[in-house]
Amino acid sequence: MKKNFYKILFMTVFSMAVLNLWAQTGTPISSYDDLNTIIRNDFASGIVNGSYYLTADIVIPDGVQWLPFGKSMTWAGSNNANLTEFDGTFDGQGHSIINLTIDKNDKTPPFDAVPANFYNMSGLFSRLGFNAVVKNLGLENVNITGGTPSGGLAGVMYGNGTSLADKVDGSGVTIENVFVTGKITGNTEVGGIVGRSNNAPLNTIRNCYVNAAIEAVNANNCWAGGIVGCMNNGWNLRLENVYAAGSVISTGYAGGLLGYTNSATDSNDQPFSVTITGSVVVANTISGGTESKLFNCLGLLDPSKVSITGSWGRNDIGVAGGDTRNPADFKSDFFYENTLGWNFMDVWKMEAGWNYPYPVFIWQTNDPSNINTPKDTQLWNVVGSNNAIEVTASAPSFLSVYNVTGKKVFAAQVSDYISIPASQGIYILKLKSAGKESVQKLIIK
Fold it and tell me: How many beta carbons lie within 10 A of that of residue 56, not counting itself?
C-alpha cells in the first residue's frame, strides 16, 4: 500500500513538473485577487489575447458572485452589447478554481440593478474567441444559475472562423484537460463545459470530463448537454476522449454529450459536422421531452455529417441513442486505456480508495464524488517563496510535506503559522485537522 502511494505520488508530481514547463511564459495568477483583477484590467486596456497560468488552487470567497471574464467591470448596466471575448491562453497547470458562483436570483444590491440579460453567457468566461486555448484546469463545485447560454467554463466557445478552409487544429477554440464539478442551471443552451459552440471552422474539446447537475429550465426551445448545450451556427465541433457524469435535465431536449444542433448549414450553405470519438456518457439521469444518450440533431443535421467512433453510454438509464455498454465497463481503467485508447501515462488515472469510479486527471488530489457538496477549502493557506514554504492553518493541524520522490521531508503539529526551509522543487503538502484532510501541491522556483 505504501509503495503504491509513493508510485501515485511520484506520477502526480512528475506530471505537474511537465505541466509547469508548458506555461512558463505569460502572466502568473496566484490568488483570488490576481484572478479577479489582472485579466479584467488587461481586457480594459485592449488585451484580449494574453497568456495566463495558475500557480495555485484559487478559492472564490464565500458570498462572492463571479463576474464572467468579458463582462463589464461593473454589475449595474452590464449587457451583452459590451461583451469582450477571450482570444488568449489560460493554463491551469493542474490547479483548480473552487466555488465559482453565479446566481441570477440574487436580488440583493448591487444585483438588483442588473438587467435580466446580464446573466446570458455565464461561466468562468462569457465567450471564448478565435484561437482561444484553455487547458489543465479544474472548476470544482461551481454553482451557476445563469441565462442563455450558460456553461461551467464558458457561455460560448465562439471561434470567429472565416471559412471552412480554416478547418484545422488551432482554427477555433481548443479546450483540453479540463474538468467541471458542481451544478449548472440556465434558461437554455446549458452545458457542463460550454453552453454553445458557435461560428468556428473547428471547435475542439478533448480530454475533459464533467460531473455535474446540469439543467435547462425554459418552457420552450430548451436545450441541455453534458459537455455542450447547443451547436448553433457553428460549422464543426469535435469531442474527443470526454465523458459526462452526474445528470442532464431539460424541459425540452437533453443529450448526454451534446444537447442539440439547431441548424444544418450556415447562411452561405456551408455544412456543419459533429465528430465524437472515444467518449462516454455515465450520467445517472438524462431526462427531457426529447432525450438522447449522446446528442440530439432532430433531423436538422445531415446524418452523414455526424461521425461517432468508439463512444458509448450506460445501458441501464432507459435512454435511446448511441451504442450502450454495461455500467461496470465504465469503471475499469482497462476499458478506457485499451478500448478507447486513453492516455493513462501522463493524462488520466483511476484513483484507488476514492468513492469516484471514473477517470480523473493525474494531477487531481480531491475526490469529485459529491457534485454539490461545498469543499472545506479554508483549512489553511500556503505560500511558496524562493527558500521556504509558509503555512498558515485556521485550526490546530498536523502537517506532512513530501518531495518529488515521495519521501516525507517534514512533519509537525501546526497551531497557526510555520515557515519551513525548502529548496527549489515540487512538493506535496497534507494537512489533517479535526478529521478533515486537505492536500495541496506547491512548486518552489
Answer: 21
Which amino acid is residue 150, in one-letter code? S
Query: 199 and 292 share a domain?
Result: yes
Q: Report the CATH number at residue 190.
A: 2.160.20.110
State whether 410 and 261 are in the same domain.
no
**pLDDT beneath 70: ranges in the chain:** 1-24, 73-82, 160-171, 200, 233-234, 262-271, 297-305, 370-379, 385-386, 404-406, 434-437, 445
Residue 170 lies in a domain: yes
Q: What is the pLDDT of residue 78?
A: 54
* Contacts for 1 with CB less than 8 Å, ≥ 6 apart: none
pTM for the model stands at 0.78
pLDDT at 10: 43
In 3-state terms, what secondary structure has residue 117?
helix
**CB 28 within 8 Å of CB 85:** no
Pairing mode of beta strands 388-393, 417-421: antiparallel
Q: Residue 2 is placed in which grid cell?
A: 505504501
Distance CA 214, CA 217 (A): 10
Sign of CA dihedral 371, 310, 359, 239: negative
Rounded Cα–Cα distance for residues 445 and 213 (Å): 39
